[in-house]
Design goal:
mainly alpha; 3 helices
Length: 78
Amino acid sequence: MIYRSAIPTLDIPPVSLTEFVLTGARGREDKPAFIEAASGRTILFGELESRIRRFAGGLARPRIRAWRRDGALQLQHP
């Protein structure tokens, strides 16, 4: 059985998720990207870009590259 949503189909651009998010962030570096409801903690778009690039850089380090052989990565957060 095929389920069809009542919501119109989204146009997904042929770019990476990172590029898509960061393109929308340009010019909004001092604006909130996320606001945590429980604590009110805010992450600005400029900080989000920095965190994304730092995380990607960490994954690209030679010591970490071994995870690519298995083709899977599991992230755990407390």
